[in-house]
Amino acid sequence: MSEKVLLIDDDQDFVDLLTEEMLYRDMDVFTAVSPEAAFKMIASDTFDVIVLSLMISGKSGLNILKNIKRINPYPEIIVLTDNTTVEKGIKAMKLGTENLLDKTMDISILAEKISRSLMKKMLFVEKSI
Fold first, then answer.
1. Is the pLDDT at 116 greater than 90, yes or no?
2. What is the residue-wise DSSP string for 3-14?
3. Residue 81 vs residues 2, 35, 48, 64, 65: alpha-carbon distances, Å
4. 9/6 Cα distance (integer angstroms)
5. I want to staple 81 with a disulfide (CB 3.0 to 4.6 A). Which of 20, 40, 47, 54 is the partner?
6. What is the CA radius of gyration of the chain?
7. Tens digits of residue pLDDT in 2-14
8. Cβ neighbours of residue 117 under 8 Å, at least 6 residues apart?
9. What would the 3-class secondary structure string for 75-96 be?
10. Which of 58, 48, 53 lies closest to 32, judged by CA?
């Protein structure tokens, strides 16, 4: 089973690079370069994991994270940042993300986090049945 991932970031070059790496790892990748596009996709489709930048088009990723959880609380969310304060990291965790990664991370670390998030979701679903 491949992971169905939604990547949300306004940096098109970063999105293209990350998408290429995820496709290479047989992930099913969808992208949104604005919060509005992401909200529409989340409302109409399901994703195993959402990878979200902490700052998109000058908007706080924390507010975007709140809206994502309001629309659909179930996908695992990984937050990417390039200049997070400890306070923002704690807020992101309180809003439901368990993974906060620096944007300069090695792609293998992100791939591992995505795989673990999918396994966690599958265990949750099995316990619910």
1. no
2. -EEEEE-S-HHH
3. 25, 16, 20, 14, 13
4. 10
5. 54
6. 14
7. 789 999 999 999 9
8. 3, 48, 49, 76, 78, 98, 99
9. CEEEEEECCCCHHHHHHHHHCC
10. 53
Sheet holding 76-81, edge to edge: 28-32, 4-8, 49-53, 76-81, 99-102
Q: Reduced to 3 states, what is the DSSP secondary structure of residue 57?
A: coil
Which tokens sit at 26? 């047989």
Residue matched to tokens 């923002």:
88
The mean pLDDT value for 33-45 works out to 94
Rounded average pLDDT over 55-61: 81
Judge contact between 25 and 1, C-beta under 8 A.
no
